[in-house]
């Protein structure tokens, strides 16, 4: 089954894809060794920073060590399978919260939004940085006072042009997933 954008799984279920994860649960108090598997003959690539894996990413060759400590830490694991015919599976994203009391520390919904860091911080396309748009503007307006209205990546990219693909996961306080889907994120605000 291939996940479709904006598809919401049944309560307690994660998005389906070619890559499966061995660790169940999301709020964990002990260290885990996460194993990945895929259908058919394939190589699996993964990332731990929200980026969509490609052939230059880390190839899965052994269990991924997720370490728990006294502080709760989130591990966002994104994985894809590369098949012998050169096609890729859809990315599958799972966020694990590991640490002492991770399984009973929350009394509200927990939200995890993950995206490729370049979607936020890249000089040309990042939506959280002044970036190329501001640099180009200042080249032609060198004596302009820079403030919140100065054209920049974070305020000039509007609508779909400024939307970046992300993954949204929402958990109940017991760690049960209630939403796991692809979404779009945008930067908006006043100064």
Describe the structure.
- It is a single chain.
- This protein is mainly beta and 191 residues long.
- The chain is built from 3 helices and 12 strands; from the N terminus they run ββββββββββαααββ.
- It has a 5-stranded mixed beta sheet, with no helix packed on it. The protein has a 3-stranded antiparallel beta sheet with strand order 10-11-12, with no helix packed on it. Strands 1-4 form a two-stranded antiparallel ribbon.
- Strand 11 (164-171) and strand 12 form a beta hairpin.
- The model is unreliable at 1-16 (pLDDT under 50).
Topology summary:
Elements: E1 19-21, E2 27-28, E3 32-34, E4 36-38, E5 42-47, E6 58-59, E7 64-66, E8 73-83, E9 92-98, E10 110-114, H1 117-121, H2 131-140, H3 153-156, E11 164-171, E12 177-185
């Amino acid at each position: 089954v291939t996940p479709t954008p904006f598809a919401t799984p049944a309560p307690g279920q994660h998005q389906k894809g070619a890559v499966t994860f061995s660790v169940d649960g999301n709020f964990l108090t002990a260290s885990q060794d996460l194993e990945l598997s895929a259908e058919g003959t394939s190589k699996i690539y993964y990332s731990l920073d929200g980026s969509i894996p490609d052939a230059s990413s880390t190839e899965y060759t052994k269990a991924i060590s997720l370490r728990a400590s006294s502080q709760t830490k989130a591990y966002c694991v994104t994985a894809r399978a590369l098949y012998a015919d050169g096609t890729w599976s859809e990315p599958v994203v799972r966020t694990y919260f590991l640490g002492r009391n991770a399984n009973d520390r929350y009394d509200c919904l927990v939200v995890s939004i993950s995206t490729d860091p370049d979607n936020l911080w890249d000089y040309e396309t990042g939506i959280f940085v002044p970036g190329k748009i501001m640099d180009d503007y200042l080249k032609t307006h060198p004596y302009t006072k820079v403030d919140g209205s100065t054209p920049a990546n974070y305020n000039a990219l509007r609508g779909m042009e400024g939307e970046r693909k992300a993954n949204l996961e929402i958990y109940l306080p017991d760690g049960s997933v209630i939403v796991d889907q692809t979404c779009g994120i945008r930067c908006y605000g006043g100064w």
